[in-house]
């Protein structure tokens, strides 16, 4: 018996991964040279990839140009970068395009599916076999712990040859992409420590940028800029040369917030129904119609038909646990800055027991939404920011009865912190400032009021809405 993690030089694996395995590989024998160049990429290149030149340039600077600079200076270090953001923003598509554009810059380039532990293990097993570190027909090739350690050992010391004396110390360059590492901690046992190479991570979790091993930084992937989003929409609908549609196309792209997935899938609806952009905007503006649009899965004339998700599913709203009710409330308030004093430790919370009832519950709910990049937080001002399209999707997910319940509760939350003033003298400066901060949220509730159906039997909580309406001069 032997310890698998000692099977190769350079491997640094967490103690929890140590397991006893049969002695199957004799490392005293002569090693075979790795098969180079070696490229593993299960995804096809997107023929309709568009824009994002600034992002690709940032990846070049972090993972390619710095490699060439270090090689010239004889410096060996691990180069890392993380692309983070909500689902549908294009993280995987950008990483795929970068892979195809730059794979020739590396002796080895590997794509690793990192959304599940089993997929990580299988990807590393495939790498070990493709590099020739194990015989595909051997028992060793079926031991995923062993093959993982063999790969980590080679990444730490990626020699091009063990046999040719003239290449005895020559090391290969390599690129490793961990795609969909939404839980960065899953990478612990697969991270190439003490290695010299380039690692790109895509993740919904913004903490991937500051992951303990990832010192190269990264970015929260922004939406497409308005002009870029418009060109994308026009191209997806085949209307690039239709000058009459350009202005209204700009309005559609802006309404969809520059999110590539939303533009792609709504372009499919527009093309399938032969809608003008103006006609689509009329449909989208109606709350009930918008609910149905978010559930459709239709590919446009130039869309990638292999993409299986809809706007309603890609954010995995149904998979939320603690954060689901908080997201529903956030979907009814002004998205550009929601003060947390509305949401946390609000005495009105007792009116809705599904909602977090204390600091701990609120922070856990908020953490789940932050981890999925469904919201962002301005720490200094203690405000929550949420994309309008995510609000639309969250409301679309609610039944009418659920919407009524959450809408009434949101009114109670805002009313509870509204600075009502009794007759007499009061602090007008405080009241003016607080009203100014809360008034956008009252207006946002007003905009959504058309979907609300007043209950047949009124309760004390139901009276908060008219009370707030009167005082806020709705």
Strand count: 11
Number of self-contained structural domains = 3
Output the number of helix runs: 17
**Helix content estimate:** 40-55%
Q: Assign the CATH topology of the largest domain.
A: Rossmann fold
Task: Identify the strand order in the major beta sheet.
Answer: 3-5-6-7-4-8
Overall average residue pLDDT: 83
Termini, distance in Å? 77 Å
Strand content: 5-15%
Order of helices and strands: EEEHEHEHHEEEHHHHHHHEHHEEHHHH
Topology:
Blueprint: E1 2-3, E2 20-21, E3 38-40, H1 53-73, E4 79-84, H2 91-102, E5 108-113, H3 117-131, H4 144-156, E6 174-179, E7 198-203, E8 218-220, H5 226-236, H6 246-255, H7 260-272, H8 277-285, H9 287-293, H10 311-314, H11 324-330, E9 338-339, H12 340-343, H13 359-371, E10 375-378, E11 383-386, H14 388-397, H15 400-417, H16 428-447, H17 464-471
Parallel strand pairs: 3-5, 4-7, 4-8, 5-6, 6-7
Antiparallel strand pairs: 1-2, 9-11, 10-11
Helix pairs in contact: 1-2, 3-4, 5-6, 5-7, 6-8, 9-14, 11-13, 15-16, 15-17
């Amino acid at each position: 018996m032997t310890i698998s993690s000692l099977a190769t030089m350079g491997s640094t694996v967490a103690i929890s991964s140590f397991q006893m395995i049969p002695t199957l590989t004799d490392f005293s024998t002569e090693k075979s040279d790795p098969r180079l160049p070696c490229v593993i990429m299960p995804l096809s290149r997107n023929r309709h990839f568009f824009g994002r030149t600034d992002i690709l340039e940032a990846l070049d600077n972090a993972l390619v140009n710095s490699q060439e600079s270090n090689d010239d200076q004889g410096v060996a270090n691990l180069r890392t970068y993380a692309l983070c953001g909500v689902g549908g923003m294009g993280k995987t598509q950008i990483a795929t395009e970068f892979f195809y554009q730059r794979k020739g810059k590396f002796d080895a380039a590997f794509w690793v599916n990192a959304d599940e532990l089993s997929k990580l293990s299988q990807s590393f097993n495939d790498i070990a076999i493709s590099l020739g570190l194990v015989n595909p027909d051997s028992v060793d090739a079926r031991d995923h712990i062993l093959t993982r350690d063999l790969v980590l050992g080679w990444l730490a010391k990626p020699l091009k040859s063990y046999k040719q004396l003239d290449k005895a110390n020559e090391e290969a360059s390599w690129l490793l992409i961990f795609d969909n590492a939404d839980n960065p901690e899953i990478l612990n046992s697969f991270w190439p420590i003490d290695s010299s190479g380039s690692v790109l991570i895509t993740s919904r979790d913004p903490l991937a940028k500051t992951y303990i091993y990832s010192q190269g930084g990264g970015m929260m992937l922004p939406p497409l800029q308005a002009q870029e989003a418009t060109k994308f929409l026009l191209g997806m609908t085949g209307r690039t040369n239709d000058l009459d549609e350009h202005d209204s196309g700009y309005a559609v792209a802006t309404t969809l917030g520059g999110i590539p997935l939303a533009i792609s899938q709504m372009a499919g609806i527009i093309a399938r129904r032969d809608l003008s952009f103006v006609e689509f905007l009329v449909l989208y503006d109606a709350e009930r119609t918008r609910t149905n649009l978010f559930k459709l899965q239709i590919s446009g004339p130039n869309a990638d038909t292999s993409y299986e998700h809809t706007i309603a599913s890609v954010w995995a709203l149904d998979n939320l646990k603690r954060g689901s009710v908080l997201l529903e409330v956030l979907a009814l308030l002004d998205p550009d800055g929601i003060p947390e004093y509305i949401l946390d430790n609000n005495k009105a919370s007792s009116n809705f027991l599904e909602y977090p009832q204390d600091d701990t519950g609120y922070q856990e709910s908020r953490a789940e939404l932050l981890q999925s990049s469904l919201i962002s937080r301005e720490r200094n001002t203690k405000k929550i920011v949420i994309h309008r399209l995510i609000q639309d999707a969250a409301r679309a997910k609610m039944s009418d009865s659920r919407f009524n319940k959450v809408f009434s509760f949101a009114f109670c939350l805002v009313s509870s912190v509204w600075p009502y003033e009794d007759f007499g003298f009061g602090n007008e400066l405080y009241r003016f400032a607080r009203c100014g901060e809360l008034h956008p949220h009252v207006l946002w509730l007003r905009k959504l009021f058309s979907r609300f159906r007043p209950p047949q039997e009124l309760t004390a909580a139901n009276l908060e809405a008219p009370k707030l309406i009167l005082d806020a001069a709705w």
